[in-house]
Amino acid sequence: MSEYDVRPLERDTWDGFAGLAERHNGVFGGCWCTWFHTMSAEKERTYEGNRSLKQRLVDEGRAHAALVYDGDETVAWCEYGSPEELPNIYHRKQYEAELDILPDYRITCIFVDKRYRRQHLSDVALQGALDLIAGAGGGVVEGYPHDTGGKKKAVLYNGTRTLFERAGFEYVRSKGMGNCVMRRTVP
């Protein structure tokens, strides 16, 4: 997989991120990977509103992702950030009721261009995020992947338990129906 390059999401790479999102209708119907940044009452709920929000968060240094490039084109990403940056996780009430430690970072969204799927780009994106987290000082990292039991599922916004296991994460507990909490420490 050495033909791919990983770069952080920032002002200089915004156009690459935006190009990937635009090729896929803003991703998941115009989310622009903003769902986890804001709570329901704060959501714009429009394609342009979400695009504007994401760009503002990137400009302010409050949105992080590992972008995977094939040449000059962004073909995948993995969103990560602190719990303060990404407060809106699915099954949050259950998660908070069973919380043992608050992580330093969360992995909340992994997306791969439809032309590049089934080529392990999720692995590249996730490892890219872990490398960027290591470069920022590391810490406890959680992911909330789908625990599919090996069955195919149409929408996997955060990858699978198997993906996270390959990246060195350990299973902590279930979360909601079909998701789980995975954790690892990044030095």
Write structural notes for this entry.
The protein is an alpha+beta fold and 187 residues long. The protein has one domain: Aminopeptidase. The protein has helices at residues 14-23, 47-59, 92-97, 121-135, 161-166; strands spanning 4-8, 64-70, 73-81, 105-112, 139-143, 170-175, 179-186. A seven-stranded mixed beta sheet has the order 1-2-3-4-5-7-6, with helices on both faces. It is globular and about 40 Å long.
β-sheet strand percentage: 25-35%
- Give the % helix: 25-40%
The main sheet orders its strands as: 1-2-3-4-5-7-6
Indicate the overall shape.
globular
Order of helices and strands: EHHEEHEHEHEE
> Could you give the count of β-strands?
7
Overall average residue pLDDT: 92
Topology, pairings included?
Layout (H helix, E strand, L loop, with lengths): L3 E5 L5 H10 L23 H13 L4 E7 L2 E9 L10 H6 L7 E8 L8 H15 L3 E5 L17 H6 L3 E6 L3 E8 L1
Parallel strand pairs: 4-5
Antiparallel strand pairs: 1-2, 2-3, 3-4, 5-7, 6-7
